[in-house]
Hints:
27% of the residues lie in helices and 24% in strands. By secondary structure, it is α/β, with parallel strands linked by helices. A five-stranded parallel β-sheet has the order 7-6-5-8-9. Strand 8, helix 6 (163-176) and strand 9 form a beta-alpha-beta unit.
Amino acid sequence: MNFKQMSQIIPEQETENFKVVHHLATAEDVRRCKMFDRKGEYSDFKEGTYVELKTKKSLFSNIVMSDTPMELRTNLEAIYNSNGNVLIGGLGIGAILLLIQEKPEVKSIIVIEKYKEIIEMIKPNLSLNEKVTIIQGDIFEWIPEENTKFDTIYFDIWNNICGDNYSEMKELKKRFRKFLNKENENKWIGYWREEDCRRAR
Length: 201
């Protein structure tokens, strides 16, 4: 899977609540990261420039999305399974969206992004095709049009791994199950790092 070099696509910028930064990972950064990587999640982490979308006011981890190998790898399942009409909760930096839109078996993509600032920072820099529609809204409140069916539903709205996220995942699954196209044998619904959040729960 050939991801785009996002540092060449998304420039550094900031709004009142968010900012995009280009983080240069040095050899020392890589060494230190791997030294404390107990799960081996950063075994393929290399020197280079990475894009980080950050919230400016968080008291905890403030990275919303990045294009480190770990972040991209943990979204691969959504890319592989995307087909038909696709619903995505969360825009992030658009890294997976750029690949999903290129799949011939994907007919349309609706992205629901809660924050207008993120849309304004990220969307203008993405070369999106006619399949893609980005809507500002809260995925917990947004309601698809009547009789809408999706073949693929993917939620990536969480910044970290914790048990509370799993409770929200179950809520979203219950909410959107009726919009999944049951006639499609390749239908799929998933969440970013669902199994890890389930274990944390």
